[in-house]
Predict the 3D structure of the following.
Amino acid sequence: MKARYDIVIVGGGMVGACLACALAPSNLHIAILEFSEPQLTWPEDSVDLRVSAISIASQRIFKAVGAWQHMVSARVSPYREMKVWDSNGKGEIHFDSADIGAAEMGHIIENRVIRAALLKRIADYSNIDFICPASLASWQRDDHIVHLTLSDDTKIQTSLLVGADGSRSQIREQADISHYGWSYHQSGVVAVVETERPHQKTAWQRFLTNGPLAFLPLADGRSSVVWSTTPAAAEQLLSMTDEQFCLKLSAALEERLGAVLTTTQRAAFPLRLQHAEHYVKERVALVGDAAHMIHPLAGQGANLGFLDAACLAEVIHNATQKSNDIGSLKTLRRYERWRKGGNVSMMYTMDGFKRLFGHHMSSAIWLRNTGLSLTNQCKPVKHRLMQQAMGEVGDLPRLAQQII
Ligand SMILES: Cc1cc2nc3c(=O)[nH]c(=O)nc-3n(C[C@H](O)[C@H](O)[C@H](O)COP(=O)(O)OP(=O)(O)OC[C@H]3O[C@@H](n4cnc5c(N)ncnc54)[C@H](O)[C@@H]3O)c2cc1C
């Protein structure tokens, strides 16, 4: 550990680790402070309950930073199609990557695989120190430097402090950056299940009265389930026997994959929308869930975080090329301007979908079923939606533009 770093990233989760990889070639001295030991190995036949649908843009970032190959060597699962339908009506939409000439729409990857691959890549760089377990006790800023004190009383200085410390970000709170948001009064119940029929490399999503149910295809033929529902219903899903849960799931997906045969243990996560008023302050920047948290119904939260990481790295790279101060508000504002619009737009789009599909009024039911059917027939709109989900639109950072 050094006494002075150019950049200190608090939080070595998927987004913090991705940012460090993206910054690594700059030769800046970087420290990541992480308080819990990451899982780097696991039994071959086990699957992480937490998985992410990774967009093509995120895949490009992983390729560009040299972590993708580690993920492929571990386990990734491409998905080519997506079927979405409403439990109240006949509206249905079918996305197929072949329609836009793409091999796949994205990949389903276990969170631990993503994180371990990024940390493996970090280990290749002598200019990055991964300090773990480390806990930040306090920090103060003056005009040019941030002074950090760790809980073991180690003192570190840095020009830029990045909060990649998740939705309850200590950095965001202590930098006095306010945030707004609301609970969805829903929990996301996750499990890994085996089904009677193969998943056909397709992501299946049915909008139920209490929230969406998604089956995401895994490489070993099983599916990862994310079932968003009321906290009370989530409690019930957690406490029922495996047999009861499998029966409930089979019915909830209308047996599109036949019966659900087996399940792992289950876990539930509270769902909320949350957004920081600012992503930056003098010498401080926020990335990932520290800056924004969205409903997981389209699997975009971490993807937005990887774009934050790639954009912040590019802004810092450009500043160092011009010998500008990487921690100044003038530099950091470029990052905020670049990312905020896209993140807010995705956040409210997901919020709108969640609300539209949560309404029980007949007009809302008519509107969403008609919307699904019309969109399914209107190829240009459907293709645009697909490209958006794949992260192919908007002002992409250099790392997300590389040819795969
Ligand atoms: C049910 C569910 C399904 C989802 N599915 C998808 C999906 O399919 N696709 C997708 O893109 N997104 C998905 N998301 C969202 C995604 O999981 C998050 O956006 C992502 O995990 C955020 O990553 P992060 O690195 O910003 O934060 P975190 O994962 O919260 O990581 C923060 C890290 O910081 C560390 N830390 C925190 N505080 C400190 C501190 N003070 N000092 C040191 N270390 C600290 C923590 O230990 C942790 O390692 C889903 C979310 C949920 C709830």
